[in-house]
Amino acid sequence: MLLGVLSLRAWKSGTKGASLPFTAASAGACLAPRRATQLTGGAGVALMLTGVMGKKYLATGALFPPGVIAGLSLAMSLFYLYNMVAGGNAPGKKSA
After folding, report:
1. Looking at the whole model, is its pTM more than 0.90?
2. Domain count, the chain
3. At CB < 8 A and 24+ separation, what contacts does 83-90 make?
4. 49: which of 9, 42, 55, 73 is 20 to 30 A away, CA to CA?
């Protein structure tokens, strides 16, 4: 929860996650400085997790954890797809 709040603050201030040096997201930002690479990598991981957990959910019928994780991963995949099509998710401009 704390990392989520810190990430949201960094996003609103327009920084690139420098305040979160030890998180996976900021490590990915250091390794892949281009925004398109980050989105594609995140979308790939989310799609893979959707497929694996969706297959497990269909095989077992258990809602938790495979069904929940598959649903959340699908939502993240759609979010990444939207960001790739829309050109990113830049923070809004503050009006004076």
Report:
1. no
2. 1
3. 83/39, 84/36, 84/39, 84/40, 84/43, 88/35, 88/39
4. 9
